[in-house]
Design brief:
The protein is mainly alpha-helical. It is 76% helix and 0% strand. It contains 5 helices and no strands. The longest helix is centred in the C-terminal third of the chain and has 28 residues. The relative contact order is 0.16.
C-alpha cells in the first residue's frame, strides 16, 4: 500500500516587483529607504505572525480584513506573489470553503516565508 502514497513537495515561485522599492530609494535616498523598508518588513512579519495566531485559534472573524491590510503592505513592497495568495485566502474565506482555505493557507505561509527571506536578503545586500 505505501507504494501508492506520493509525497508532494510544493514549489511556489515567488514573484517580486522591484519598482516600488526602487522608487523609494530614488525619492528618499538610501538611508531613509532602508529604514522604511526594514520597518515595513518588520510590520509585515508581525502581521503574518498575528494572522497565524488567529488561524491556530480558529478565530476567523477579522481575518479577511487583516488579509486585505497585508495585501496593501505586499503591494507597497512589490511582493506580487504574497499579495496574490493573500487574495486567494480572502476568496476562500468569503466562500466559506474550509478545505480550500486549509490548502491555500499552507501555500500562503510558504510564500510569505520565501517572500520575506528574499526581501531581507535584498536589504542586507544593499549595505
Amino acid at each position: 500500500m505505501t507504494a501508492d502514497i506520493m509525497a508532494l513537495q510544493p514549489k511556489d515561485r515567488v514573484r517580486q516587483d522591484s519598482a516600488p522599492i526602487a522608487l523609494m530609494y530614488r525619492t528618499m535616498g538610501t538611508k531613509a529607504a532602508e529604514e522604511v523598508v526594514g520597518r515595513a518588513l518588520g510590520e509585515m512579519t508581525f502581521a503574518i505572525s498575528g494572522l497565524s495566531s488567529l488561524v491556530l485559534a480558529q478565530d476567523m472573524t477579522d481575518l479577511s480584513r487583516q488579509m486585505r491590510r497585508l495585501i496593501r503592505m505586499s503591494d507597497q513592497l512589490g511582493m506580487v506573489s504574497l499579495g496574490q495568495v493573500a487574495g486567494d485566502v480572502r476568496a476562500c474565506l468569503s466562500e466559506g470553503d474550509k478545505i480550500a482555505f486549509s490548502a491555500v493557507w499552507a501555500r500562503f505561509l510558504r510564500v510569505a516565508e520565501r517572500s520575506l527571506a528574499i526581501e531581507t536578503d535584498l536589504l542586507d545586500q544593499s549595505h
